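<backbone_tokenisation>
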Amino acid sequence: MLEKTLTAFITVLAGVSAALALYWVLNKISELLPEKYEERLKPWFYILPAYLAIAIFVIYPAVQTFIYSFKTKVGFPAESWTGFDNYTTLLASDAFRQTLLNTFLWILFVPAAVVILGLLVALLADRLPTKGENAVKTLIFMPMAISMVGAATVWGLVYDYRPPGRPQVGLLNGIVAAFGGDPIAWLQQNAFHFNSFLLMVMLLWMNVGFAMVLLSAAVKGVPSETLEAARIDGADERQVYVRVVLPQIKGTIVTVFITVLIGVMKVFDIVFVMTNGNFNTNIIGNEFYLQFFNNNNQGAAAAIAVMLMLAVIPIMIYQVRNFRAEEAAR
């Protein structure tokens, strides 16, 4: 443990030192230029490393992934072209279509539930005394500090199943057994995708605190004059929140929703640790892992990554446009 800690510390120190040295050298180079060129080129010297990093670590891998999605699974990089076979094979598979359906359920349920619960907690906590509000928000925000693998381990103790007659470690089955019932294999209950919704609860538990913090700040930023004016005009508390507060924090709500949505589309850890996609819980992030590492099918894995990128890009474009519209309105 000590060795890993020291390695991480040295790595961070070396990275920061190298970045400082790089920018010091670039600054010195810009100072050697004639003054009229220095003023024009110095900003480019500072942003050039960032652009270079984006090109190497984002653009190049994205282009290569797109190319690999049209190649066979043999070897990596594969040499033989297969056209759209990887895409058609995946989309023709009942298992993959079920994976897309499960992913769609996550997209449909989790972001909306996170926003609603986060807003509800923010509004209710805002009514508490300062100490009580801080305590409640701290407790709800704490799961954000846990990794998804750690959260899956914690919730594994909630959903754990042992055969009848054995001591029940899982919290839910402990309650069921205490009332005289038989233990239930919760994560194997795939009727109406019940086990997938149980996994979604874990992501809600982790993200409600994030939504609460942003939405609470937005609610506190609503001018008190508008609230008082609404109350003087005869609006009750529900009308104040629905017709006055919510329209003024719409931008924050959209930001939280899209941020959680993008995170949901990339979810992998929870499903991998809890079920590995079994019992009809598979989602697209886990399917990518299974195709790449378990099936050694790099072409199909690349095709899945491309599908995911194509789904995320329009959402990111909308988010950028929404942000620019908000900035222009201020």
Remarks:
- The mean pLDDT is 88.
- The radius of gyration is 25 Å.
